[in-house]
Write a structure and sequence with these properties.
The structure holds two protein chains of two kinds.
Chain A lengths: L17 H23 L1 H25 L10 H11 L7 H16 L12 H12 L1 H5 L1 E2 L11 E2 L2 H10 L4 H5 L4 H6 L11 H13 L6 H20 L7 H6 L3 H8 L10 H21 L6 H10 L1 H7 L9
Antiparallel strand pairs in A: 1-2
Chain B lengths: L23 E3 L5 E5 L9 E2 L6 E2 L4 E4 L8 E2 L4 E10 L5 E9 L22 H10 L12 H4 L10 E6 L8 H8 L1 H14 L5 E6 L3 H14 L4 E6 L8 H9 L14 E5 H12 L6 E7 L7 E6 L4 H7 L7 E6 L6 E2 L13 E6 H4 L12 H5 L6 H9 L3 H6 L10 H5 L6 H31 L1
Parallel strand pairs in B: 1-14, 9-10, 9-12, 10-11, 13-17
Antiparallel strand pairs in B: 2-8, 3-5, 4-7, 5-6, 7-8, 13-14, 15-16, 15-17
Helix pairs in contact in B: 1-4, 1-7, 3-5, 4-7, 11-14
Classes of the chains: A mainly alpha, B alpha/beta.
């Protein structure tokens, strides 16, 4: 000891850092990643690799050459964005489309606003929606899972897409949903984005994040509850026109969105109350877009719309202060 | 065992009570002690001895400088060498009385035996007067003069005395050891406080990581046959020992912003204070010493020492083998709210509870990164504030907004900074905002008072 350090209290710090939290998110995504690779095969691995590598490299290049600041890739948030983006597109997406998605996600939605913590919208979702609008062919032609060692690639629409198309052709929901069984949806989805493949793997990751106290469950649970309740009402009124609650919960990336996208720290409200309102909003918008919108799928749009009102939610819903009314 | 805790926020640092087995042993008296006149919240005391005077242990050497003030007694016997400014542990100068030690002769009337005196005086006023004469101040950290706390303003009534034995700060064990070794005295001290407050019930709150103390105090209460006194087992949670948090946990009442605990009928005293009350009332022994935990993973010898007030820190540390090579920071108090020591020649005060040695690795702050809006600071804040917001407002020097968002309610517990994954120095900035908010509130109160007086004339 030569000199004494002097600084204000507290003198110790918890072990949490941005990096450790992001690492936990990555760990929580591992079951879903493994599942999607097993179900979709090496093509999914390529999508994941391109997505993660481009997100990280883009952030590194932007901080180094454009912002001329120390690199921030060590916080692992670019890795999380990369994985989420990959899980949000079909495994058949060409690598250059994935790269464009990464440019929009990291370059536009994240770094333009000043990097992690400054962005208004969830970067991976902005990337996904950009691709959905710009490259509808790649983004909506889904192939049935072929499996790591499988050969029978069958092209087809997602369950939600099939329902919407069928409805337009005059079929009833009962006829259309009879093609799917819920066990398949829970364990291995049919057509869809890689991340929609296995709801159970995603839920396992969600439980991990809650146990590690990385996130609180309220946002996710309020989304599930709202989706279930709202679709129960519609389905109860007209089961021929509207899909049932369980179908809505298990399809269209709702589980992925509710567990991993809506719970993104940066773009969700700070307080529990705000989070519940946020979740209810997402649930409501998702169901309404699915039932009445022109896109079969509503989770991404619902989350992005609710992301936009987070500053208001933060202002309106504050936690109760000690000893104050 | 049901466990109680406060309702908002809090964090769980590792408790690191590595000195819990160290019994309290007296530290040999230093050759020279330096007794400060500002050892408590309130007006500095006024020295009432002169250079060259001979003093005895327990003799008054400084008198209260105002209503919120305390007597200060000599902790040693010897000769007053000087009354002059001297640097405190932060390096700030204040008046200290330097006494060269000669022998260990105690002032008349102090009972130095170990006999437990359980007879409780009938008159509450007599108890409070003796507490005042004993120079007792709150030893839980704030060092607020105890006799003032025991004299509630007219119109308010105490409904419960709470003895704070939470010791929620990591590393500290002096209260734990006091409960174990001087449990009888603490319990009688608590009974004295009950009497002083008009015979109200008493709760002794102890955190669950001190099962021996919980069992021992329950035994003592049963043995002494006190009916209106109970031990409450608290969940391990920081800052459980914060006054407002403890009242919330024990009584489920929240003290309002800027209000005193008595406004909800509570009087909280720390374990060490209860012991000091016992000694002042039953033994006529003023606060001349206090137990200090000396600890830290890098410190080879853990200890709980009974240290005379005014002992230079360097003397204590040298007694235990000197400052270890790896120690980068020495803290007076716990790691969450303690103060970093800048000056090892500073002397202990009544409220010195611990000396903690931390290595650079343990205490180094990581570089600040962007806020990721995770809300962990808001979850951790036991006052329900929004540290991320106050941090921003304080950095923008928007003091009105700081006040509107209750920066003045901040208890500086450090939970926000402790839990921030982006390592933002939240509390450093919020302290500044709190300071400005408080001065604005005080200025308004003073202006209102002046206007009211002008109107009267």
């Amino acid at each position: 000891m030569s000199k004494l350090l002097v600084s204000p209290s507290p003198h110790i710090h918890s072990k949490d850092s941005t990096r450790s939290l992001m690492l936990d998110v990555v760990i929580a995504l591992i079951p879903a990643v493994v599942c999607s690779v097993v179900f979709y095969g090496w093509q999914e691995l390529l999508v994941l690799g391109v997505s993660v590598a481009s997100c990280v490299l883009l952030e590194w290049a932007i901080t180094k050459y454009m912002l001329k600041k120390p690199s921030t890739i060590g916080d692992l948030s670019a890795v999380v964005t990369g994985i989420l983006l990959a899980l949000n597109v079909p495994y058949t997406t060409p690598w250059w489309v994935v790269f464009v998605g990464a440019v929009v996600a990291v370059g536009v939605a994240k770094m333009t606003f000043g990097g992690l913590g400054q962005n208004i919208w969830n970067p991976a979702l902005v990337g996904r929606v950009f691709l959905l609008v710009s490259f509808p062919t790649y983004m909506t032609t889904w192939s049935k899972p072929q499996g790591l060692f499988g050969v029978d690639a069958v092209s087809g629409p997602t369950p939600l897409g099939a329902i919407q198309e069928g409805l337009m052709q005059g079929s009833t929901v009962q006829e259309l949903t009879s093609a799917y069984n819920y066990k398949d949806l829970l364990f291995a989805n049919l057509g869809g984005s890689a991340g929609e493949v296995c709801a159970l793997a995603l839920l396992a990751g969600f439980v991990y994040l809650c146990c590690r106290k990385v996130i609180k469950p309220w946002i996710t649970l309020s989304i599930f509850a709202t989706v279930a309740l709202v679709s129960l009402i519609f389905w109860g009124v007209n089961p021929a026109r509207f899909t049932d609650p369980l179908f809505n919960l298990l399809t269209g990336g709702l589980v992925l969105g509710a567990c991993f996208m809506a719970t993104d720290y940066v773009t969700s409200p700070m307080s529990v109350k705000g989070g519940v309102v946020f979740g209810v909003g997402i649930g409501l918008l998702t169901v309404l877009i699915r039932y009445f919108g022109s896109y079969p799928e509503g989770v991404s749009f619902a989350i992005l719309i609710m992301n936009s009102v987070v500053p208001l939610l933060n202002m309106w819903f504050k936690q109760k202060k000690f000893g104050r009314k | 065992m049901s466990k109680h805790t406060f309702s908002i926020g809090g964090v769980h640092p590792h408790d690191n009570k590595i000195s819990r087995e160290c019994a309290i042993t007296p530290l040999p008296i230093a050759p020279t002690v330096y007794i400060g006149v500002s050892q408590h919240i309130g007006a500095p005391s006024v020295p009432c001895v002169a250079v060259g005077d001979k003093v005895k242990v327990g003799q008054v050497i400084a008198e209260p400088g105002g209503f919120v003030g305390a007597y200060i007694h000599s902790s040693v016997s010897g000769t007053v060498k000087s009354i002059a400014p001297r640097a405190d542990l932060a390096g700030r100068a204040s008046t200290h009385i330097e006494i060269a030690v000669e022998g260990d002769e105690w002032a008349d009337g102090i009972d130095t035996t170990d006999t437990l005196i359980t007879a409780i005086p009938e008159d509450p006023k007599a108890i409070i007067e003796k507490v005042k004469l004993g120079g007792v101040v709150g030893l839980g950290g704030a060092t607020f003069p105890t006799h003032v706390k025991l004299s509630p303003p007219p119109g308010s009534k105490c409904e419960r005395v709470i003895i704070n034995g939470c010791e929620c700060e990591p590393y500290l064990t002096s209260d734990f050891r006091t409960l174990l070794e001087k449990g009888e005295q603490v319990v009688v001290g608590a009974a004295l406080l009950q009497k002083a407050m008009g015979g109200v019930p008493c709760t002794i709150a102890i955190e669950e990581n001190k099962p021996e103390a919980i069992a021992h105090i329950r035994e003592v209460i049963a043995k002494l046959g006190y009916k209106d006194m109970e031990v409450m087992v608290m969940k391990m949670m920081y800052p459980q020992g914060g006054e407002k948090q403890l009242i919330d946990a024990v009584m489920h009442r929240q003290v309002g912003s800027g209000a005193l605990p008595i406004s909800v009928g509570a009087v909280v005293q720390n374990v060490a204070t209860a012991l000091a009350v016992y000694e002042a009332v039953q033994k006529n022994k003023p606060i001349i010493d206090n137990s200090v935990t000396v600890t830290g993973e890098c410190f080879p010898k853990q200890a709980n020492l009974l240290v005379r007030v005014g002992t230079p820190l360097r003397y204590i540390i040298d007694y235990l083998g000197g400052v270890p090579e790896e120690a980068a920071k020495i803290i007076s108090g716990g790691p969450m709210m303690g103060r970093a020591v800048a000056n090892l020649d500073a002397a202990t005060v009544k409220g010195t509870g611990a000396l903690l040695f931390l290595t650079e690795k343990q205490t180094r702050r990581a570089p600040e990164t962007h806020c990721i809006r995770c809300g962990k600071c808001a979850d951790a804040c036991p006052m329900g504030l929004e540290p991320f917001l106050l941090n921003k407002l304080a950095k923008n020097a928007d003091w009105d907004a700081c006040e509107a968002n209750a920066a003045q309610d901040c208890i500086e517990c450090g939970c926000c900074l402790y839990s921030c994954p982006a390592h933002i120095p939240l509390l450093d900035n919020i302290r500044v905002g709190k300071g400005f908010a408080l001065s604005a509130i005080r200025a308004r109160a003073a202006a209102a008072k002046a206007a009211a007086e002008a109107a009267k004339k």
